[in-house]
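Quick one:
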Amino acid sequence: MTAAAENTDLRWMDRALELATQACAGGEVPVGSVIVRDGVEIGAGYNMPIARADPTAHAEVVALRRAAAEAGNYRLTGATVYVTMEPCSMCVGALVQARVDRVVFGAPDPKSGALGSVIDLNASGLHNHRLRVAGGVRAAESAALLQSFFRERRRRRECLARPDDPARGSELPLS
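Output:
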């Protein structure tokens, strides 16, 4: 990869990290995605399944919907998707259906990553379209944001788990 291409990837991944921070501020798992074609942002999104009460509102899907609307076409050939965490199987399927050319992700997802961590749907040979994939771009920053989010979530749960906490309701012993 050329230095210019690497700088471009870093710049767009920084934009995806900004979007992930917005997800975090809204109480969503901090994942952000931006879709770029010909050097122009055509779609962006962040995780919103809680806010939208929609299990498909992952960052990639939100960004794909916006990009398709902007392009006036569900096929996004020539586009690169930047996402802060390795896409899950649902999102890889959507990226393949949209015919994006390239996916650049930050942190791997050891629980549901579908571009190599748990399964590699791109290499499976099951689809008639193959994505070009680059992982690990701004991985440390992406992972730190996710770790901070989940650390805070666990801390809040621990606070709620105190035996003297009135939020525990019926779990308190009856006197």
